[in-house]
Specification:
Distance between the termini: 102 Å
Number of helices: 12
Radius of gyration: 34 Å
Largest sheet: 4 strands, antiparallel
Structural class: alpha+beta
CATH superfamily of the largest domain: CBS-domain
Strand content: 15-25%
Helix content: 25-40%
CATH topology of the largest domain: CBS-domain
Strand order of the largest sheet: 2-3-5-6
Number of strands: 13
Number of domains: 3
Bound molecules: iron/sulfur cluster
CATH class of the largest domain: Alpha Beta
Low-confidence stretches: 203-218
Length: 365
């Protein structure tokens, strides 16, 4: 056994006659009146349920869960993960929805014990049309109070004000939206659908991809994005050095009439059946020996998601072309053909005809 050193013996003797070096850990939960930042606690009145504290909590100790059936949002702090940094209090939009108390974080035997969680429940407002969460009722009121008179520009806020005065029954589900549905609590997406349906008398299936459908005074204009949603975004490509024979084989295998020619990620041209018919045999060439670059059409006219079917049609007619690659942020994302464009223009006309028929037979209120 190793014998203690003189210094160690001296320290052991000294410790018998001096007070302890550390302070006592409290045996029971206690608060300290000094400037100590302890466990955070919610104030159910001051918290409006915005969820900002969830976003800023660096340790992920705060969780948010929305129960759309019960229309309740629960925000809860897991004390086992909380590092008492104070960010939640610092960034709380009301300044007092959650406050770091001076309560100590005590060691516990079971981290799942109820005292290891702090929670608050807030009433949720959900869309009466689709059930999407709009926000907590108190949060909407908080926003409304800050907007002042400007809040009355929005039906949701008008209904919220009415609800403060009297009970407002939620709207009953209907087979289709009607004009009066503009005055119900709805999310931005459903409100847009309701307004459009009211304005243009359209079936919802038609207005579904609203964010990419151009609405004009004359009705709906379908865009390239609508076309691609319908036909898919798969594009078959080849390279300018590939042989025409191989490219034709790809076209036959995939059942397409054109390939986009891509070199090093950039569109170099377009190869169609028409190019083959006009530029190979008639020029004394053979497809197994001819590279694609010799017969491809270049340069290529491209379109974007928001280009309308009518604009595609005009471009194709003017330039005598039958295919338009779709490019977004320098990336090839699709290919539309004259057939796709014609189909879309016919759909647009059908919508206009339905619209006029409704107008003539007096379906408009
Ligand atoms: S004190 Fe810090 S770690 Fe604890 S809940 Fe608030 S933000 Fe999260
Ligand atoms: S009001 Fe404050 S405590 Fe309540 S959810 Fe928003 S940020 Fe969190």
């Amino acid at each position: 056994m190793r014998l203690p050193k003189i210094r160690e013996l001296r320290e052991a003797l000294t410790s018998f006659f001096t007070p302890p070096y550390t302070t006592k850990f409290p045996a029971v939960p206690d608060t300290w009146s000094g400037s100590y930042r302890g466990l955070p606690k919610y104030d159910g009145e001051a918290c409006v349920g915005c969820g900002a504290c969830v976003q800023v909590c660096p340790s992920g100790a705060i969780e948010q869960s929305d129960d759309r059936e019960r229309k309740v949002r629960t925000l809860s702090v897991d004390y086992g993960s909380c590092i008492q940094c104070g960010q939640c209090q610092e960034h709380c939009i009301t300044g007092k929805g959650i406050v770091n108390t001076t309560a100590y974080s005590l060691a516990v035997a079971d981290v799942r014990a109820p005292e290891m969680r702090e929670a608050v429940e807030k009433e949720l407002t959900v869309c009466e049309a689709c059930g999407a969460v709009i926000g907590c009722r108190d949060h909407l009121r908080w926003v409304m109070d800050r907007l002042g008179a400007r809040a009355y520009a929005h039906p949701n806020f008008i209904l919220l004000t009415q609800a403060r005065l009297t009970d407002v029954a939620p709207a009953r589900p209907k087979s289709r939206f009607r004009r009066e549905d503009q005055m119900m609590v709805v999310c931005a997406k459903c409100r847009q659908k309701i307004v459009t349906a009211d304005e243009f008398r359209l079936d919802h299936a038609v207005v579904k991809p609203l964010e990419i459908t151009k609405i004009t005074e004359g009705g709906v204009m379908l865009t390239v994005k609508n076309i691609l949603e319908d036909k898919g975004v798969t594009v078959w490509t080849t390279t300018s050095e590939a042989k025409v024979f191989d490219a034709l084989k790809t076209m036959a295998d995939k059942g397409v009439g054109a390939l986009v020619v891509v070199d090093k990620g950039k569109i170099a041209g377009l190869l169609s059946e028409r190019d083959y018919a006009r530029k190979v045999v008639l020029h004394g060439k053979t497809s197994p020996k001819t590279p694609v670059r010799e017969i491809m059409t270049s340069p290529v006219f491209c379109v974007k998601f928001m280009t309308t079917a009518q604009e595609c049609m005009a471009l194709m007619t003017e330039k005598h072309i039958r295919h338009l690659p779709v490019v977004e942020e320098d990336k090839l994302v699709g290919l539309v053909s004259i057939g796709d464009v014609v189909k879309s223009v016919i759909s647009e006309h059908q919508i206009t005809i339905n619209h006029l028929q409704d107008y003539i037979v007096g379906k408009y209120l």
